[in-house]
Amino acid sequence: MKKLITVLSLFVTLSPFVSAQEKVVPQGVGNTAMQFVCQPRTAATAMAGIEAFDGADFFLRDTGRVELDVSYSMWERTASVATSPVNAVIRYKSRNFIGVSVDMHVDRMKSTIPTDENGDFQRNGQYRPSNLGLGLGVDFLVLPNVEIAAKARYLRSNFYLGQNFNAFSSDLTAAAVFGSFGVVAGVANLGPKVSGKYSLPTSALICATFEHKGIMAEVEGDYYFFGGIRLAAAASYTFKDIVTARVGYNMGKGTPLESFASAGLGVKVVGIQLNLAYLFSNNPLNGTASIGLNYKF
């Protein structure tokens, strides 16, 4: 019974390393590790988690030479196990040829279950897992409206008694812009198994966007290699390049990013945009909130 409680507590952290007894966990998302890599890392939280096109949009549409995006989230804040990740993304574009991006994800989760690695309760101490992600990406312009991109990430999850799990993953994508339309396709979170046993949440993805006179609409689909499917749609409207309203819906039952509806608001002052987002759901994602700052120069 104690081991089962431990397995359940690990599962809801979004980075579920399961018990060594695989029969406890059914085939699927429960056998994947480091699911935090599927959390949105920008204001895309309010856009149903759609962010596959973010970097390509910056690079292909030439919206700026440098972009900085920093966000803080209260993920699953109403659940018994919560996490508060800090994400940062910086992108640089050289003249018409190459772009570089660096991203970071750091969070330390909370749990009310004091336990050791055997699932035995302790009188003192508390289970406090943490996650870290560091990424480096490169974009190449191969045609005036087409780019290819690759990103590599170092991932680490720290669990009970200081036990660490380390992994490497990569994203490989191609993107194109045709007037107001954009599309990106590729593979996300591709990498070897963690500890030779747990799979990363690898997926094939496709994203399409439309942008015209302040209106943006996006759709995105992920097919996870363990068999799950995620579909998302979102829209936003920007008024006079000052105020942006965002809404979206993510359908992802049985995937690393469960189903939710989202809404958000962005306000730009002296070039700095403040972004707010809130998630609505009947699962632990309900009540998730995030705040972020974006600056392009």
Describe the structure.
There is one protein chain. This protein has 297 residues and is mostly beta strands. The chain contains 2 helices and 14 strands. It has helices at 2-11, 54-60, and strands spanning 66-74, 86-93, 98-108, 130-143, 146-158, 164-178, 181-190, 203-212, 215-224, 229-239, 243-251, 260-269, 272-280, 289-296. The protein has a 14-stranded antiparallel beta barrel with strand order 1-2-3-4-5-6-7-8-9-10-11-12-13-14. The longest helix is centred in the first third of the chain and has 10 residues, at 2-11. Mean pLDDT is 84; it is low at 1-26.
Topology:
Elements: H1 2-11, H2 54-60, E1 66-74, E2 86-93, E3 98-108, E4 130-143, E5 146-158, E6 164-178, E7 181-190, E8 203-212, E9 215-224, E10 229-239, E11 243-251, E12 260-269, E13 272-280, E14 289-296
Antiparallel strand pairs: 1-2, 1-14, 2-3, 3-4, 4-5, 5-6, 6-7, 7-8, 8-9, 9-10, 10-11, 11-12, 12-13, 13-14
